Amino acid sequence: MTKLAIVTGSGQGIGKAVANKLSQQGYAIGVLDINAETAKQTASELIEKGYEAKAYPVDVADEEKFSEAVDQAITDLGELAVFVNNAGEAFIDSIIDSEPAKIKRLIDVNLLGTFWGIRIAAKRFIAQGNGGRIINAASLAGVEASALQSAYSASKFGVRGLTQSASKELAKYQITVNAYNPGVVRTPMRDAIDKRTAAIKSKSISDQQRNVLSEISLGREATPEDVANVVSFFASPEGSYITGQSILVDGGMEYR
């Protein structure tokens, strides 16, 4: 039977790289993304490469629709084996100036969306009876909080807590739960972060990016593929004895 990997937020950026990497490991890919166009594009590109994939447009903040999309992917593509809660949102602003609607939306997607994803995946894995892998997107900002990212940092600290709690609850079912903590990864989301941060600090975008780059020991930004390699390890046989962990993928920005 084909093994299925579901990756949320896989229409672009890190999620798309994860979908590509897991497809190379032999998984059929359920491409879940709020943007129907980018979800279909990712699925189409995977199919063109000879992999099995299908797109499912969904907002992970809507638990009912999220659950329905997962069930449809299992029906279409096979037994669930890997579940990656990658979907996320970010915005840059001070605590004082942050808009309540933006804060609520970010928490609904990043924290509650991950909670729903863990719960949805766990129920399916338990019903199947063969264990499984749940892998969550946390962040460097969930290890060392960042100024101007209070809501984002809070959500990602929460994801790390969810990861630990879920790993303890689900270990008896042979379900591992881990997280990855990306640092600076060049994606459309990162472009928006740099633009807004530069505006708040009255700097040029290039100056802002140079300042951040100076904090990275390895001297370069991460690529989405760098992060996908860590997710791939968690999903692999070699990662089977690791659970409750969150690994920094930051090129040496934070040392813990």
The total count of strands amounts to 7
Structural class: alpha/beta
- Strand portion: 15-25%
The description of the largest β-sheet is: 7 strands, parallel
What is the strand arrangement across the widest sheet?
Answer: 3-2-1-4-5-6-7
What would you report as the Rg, rounded to the nearest angstrom?
Answer: 17 Å
**Number of helical regions:** 8
Question: What would the principal axes of the Cα set say about the shape?
Answer: globular
Account of the protein in words:
- This is Acetoin reductase.
- It comes from Lentilactobacillus terminaliae.
- The chain has eight helices and seven strands.
- It has 256 residues and is α/β, with parallel strands linked by helices.
- The termini are far apart.
- The mean pLDDT is 96.
List the main descriptive attributes of the protein structure presented here.
single chain, alpha/beta, 48% helix, seven-stranded parallel sheet, globular, 256 residues
Secondary structure layout:
Layout: E1 3-8, H1 13-24, E2 28-33, H2 36-48, E3 53-57, H3 63-77, E4 79-85, H4 100-128, E5 132-137, H5 150-170, E6 175-182, H6 188-200, H7 205-213, H8 224-235, E7 246-249
Parallel strand pairs: 1-2, 1-4, 2-3, 4-5, 5-6, 6-7
Helix pairs in contact: 1-8, 3-4, 4-5, 6-7
Protein name: Acetoin reductase
How would you sum up this structure in a few lines?
With 256 residues, the chain is an alpha/beta fold.
